[in-house]
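Key idea: predict the complex, not the pieces.
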Amino acid sequence: MLHDIFIAPFQDMFSAPDFLLQVLWEGLVSGILYALIALGFVLIFRSSRIFNFAQGIMVVFAALTLVGLHAMGVPAWICVLLTLGVMFVLAMAIERVVLRPLVGQPDIILFMATIGITLFLIGFGEIIFGGENKVMITEELGIPTGSWTLEPFGGLLILEQKDVTAVVVAALLVIGLLVFLSRTQMGRAIRALGDDSQAALSVGISLHTIWVLVWFIAGIIALVTGIAWGARAGVSFALEVIAYKALPVLMLGGLESIAGAIIGGLMIGLLEKLFEIYWGQPLMGGNTETWFAFVLALLVLLFRPQGLFGEKIIERV
Amino acid sequence: MTDQAEGYTTADGRKIGGVVMEMKNITLRFGGVVAIHNISFDIREGEIRAIIGPNGAGKSSMLNVISGFYTPSEGEVWYKGAKRPPMKPYEVARQGVARTFQNIALFEGMSVLDNVMTGRLTHMKAGILPQMIWKGRAEAEETENRIIAERVIDFLEIQHIRKTPVARLPYGLKKRVELARALAAEPTILLLDEPMAGMNVEEKEDMCRFILDVNDEFGTTIALIEHDMGVVMDLSDRVVVMDYGKKIGDGSPDEVRNNQDVIDAYLGVQH
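Result:
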């Protein structure tokens, strides 16, 4: 038994390094997508202290809008622009109808409001686009669907081109976002508002503008995630479930750290895949990916409640 | 010195211009509490105007009315010759009124430079899209903002901590960074809420020098609240004295110093 847990898996890894690489690659791809969703959470939390439960459904809604518009005969790239427009309108509507009337309410009220947004988007999405599964318009968007075959260590490594595209696009998005936040006045305004809202008001920052902006950015992230995940698993409301994987990512990375969200996402993606292949399937009959991340998060909560990268909370007594 | 005339000349020979901001019969109530009772005064271009008074006199409330954090229950605020409608604080800021806070409100997680740069937000013209793609106007504006921010940082002698996160700075320097952020906005009126509070003698002297230099160098109109009488008398051109929400004196430091009501408010009266 101990041999199976502590020795056999590592022997497997070293005896077939090409397969290990394949597993790591698969883990990296899902990790990047978890990281993107977590990033959406972090952005909104940092600028408004709202834990946005609706981030997951925004992914589904963005993907549905994209596919739905295309089904109406609109060219693919125009669909992307229109979907971005829809996400912007959604951001404005959420700010005007939900957030603005609730300014100054306790966090839990705002959290409940985002659950309301989730339910609304599920219902609204179903009415407009129908509830059945759809296929992501991968080819129409010009995303390559072939695969590359590499032969490291004399073995075999297959990289799906759409996964490579997803990783590259996600990386560009994250880099762009970091530059935007650190080098532009709007970015500074977003960070400032998260730090001290009263001081932010005194330097001319409008709460409303920044909230719309941040929710719009979360919408853009949702669209990219929706396309990437939809290309692998199709577009359906079940996609929302993957958003819950972002919760353990946030516990690992902390709610406030962008770097934490990215590293946390990658870690969860990689570890759950490794665990599934080398421990889960041989020892537990597989399907450990559904719960592994949550158990890991529980362990982190036990030993580092502030997350791996969060600020240590010191309370004066 | 005549208040009615178009401006006046100070004892040290500085020319003071016309009225920039005028408070007309301001009353501010919180439920049954009257924080400010029917107060009028003006702030003139280029002067250092102080509002003083014992604790709880309503000074901070007055500053909050000027900066838009409170809306007066009665009375009017006139700014640059026009009546100001009720406004949000960020709108007041964009009109050219910058402020600091008594308890320091800085963006703790950001560097000193980034904090000062947020002061330039009132001058932001490029839209969201150009900023997102970092093109055209946004780029030119960033350069311009940076030049002004660096000039302010030089002026207040905080170059050595430009990249330091604000959270790590000692109190006195934080106060200075807050002043820098307000100055970076190139404000028409600079409001200082107890700029010397909690400082030691050296820090107070530094702050005094900076306030005078700012007024001198940039010609900035400054309105400040302070309860340290000595400091105020040295710094200001004209002083409003408040007590229990009422105005009990208004004039040059000498006039105020000799005003019996003011003496009573500060030293107490025998009954």
